[in-house]
Structure to design on (222 residues):
């Protein structure tokens, strides 16, 4: 659990984020309702947010903190548009598991990384509990990009064939600057998928502009 100073600081950050979001033009709810070129959520009342994060040994606490701030921004975005929001936390190393918030942000596992395990579990949960005709589905994935080489192409295929056709938006954030094979595979999706975005983040100061860029399509070009 977070200490009182950490809780106070997090609340302050959330307040600051809310103020920033209110100043972003494309988040205007009137604009979302009446501009013909904007995709209108159906149904408009509920959304589910899938948070996927690598918890293998290479994801240190600093990288988890960066990921947490990104997830918070996505959640704040959704609260401006939906009355009901479910959050599904999926952590993974070589295997994926649905967990609660505390386990998601604080657990660390040793060993390697198989990213596709998280995408497979996300797809299974979507089909079982969140049919796309009834829910607006959003995905947010955070990782340092490390993955078993042979698994990265499988991740791209899972997104392209099974996940992206069912979600409104999927955002991938790599919390490291190193070139990784997963990044290279995901880049191939950008040319064909309009509801997919990816960015690299290495410092907390980069979170705000990354968020604006990631969701520009959702608010303006969708």
């Amino acid at each position: 659990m977070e200490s009182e100073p950490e809780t106070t600081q997090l609340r302050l950050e959330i307040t600051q984020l809310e103020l920033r979001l209110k100043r972003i033009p494309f988040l205007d709810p009137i604009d979302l309702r009446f501009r013909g070129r904007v995709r209108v959520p159906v149904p408009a009342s509920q959304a589910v947010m899938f948070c996927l994060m690598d918890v293998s040994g290479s994801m240190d606490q600093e990288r988890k903190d960066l990921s947490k701030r990104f997830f918070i921004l996505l959640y704040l975005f959704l609260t401006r548009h939906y009355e009901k929001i479910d959050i599904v936390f999926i952590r993974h190393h070589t295997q994926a598991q649905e967990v609660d918030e505390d386990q998601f942000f604080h657990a660390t596992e040793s060993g390697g990384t198989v990213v596709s395990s998280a995408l497979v579990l996300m797809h299974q949960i979507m089909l079982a509990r969140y049919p796309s005709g009834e829910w607006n589905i959003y995905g947010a994935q955070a990782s340092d990009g490390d993955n078993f080489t042979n698994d990265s192409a499988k991740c791209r295929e899972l997104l392209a064939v099974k996940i992206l056709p069912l979600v409104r938006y999927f955002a991938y954030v790599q919390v490291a600057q190193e070139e990784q094979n997963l990044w290279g595979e995901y880049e191939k999706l950008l040319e064909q998928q309009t509801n997919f975005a990816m960015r690299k983040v290495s410092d907390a100061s980069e979170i705000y502009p990354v968020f604006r860029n990631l969701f520009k399509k959702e608010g303006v070009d969708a």
Observations:
- The CA atoms of residues 39 and 191 lie 20 Å apart.
- The first helix runs from residue 4 to 22.
- The radius of gyration is 17 Å.
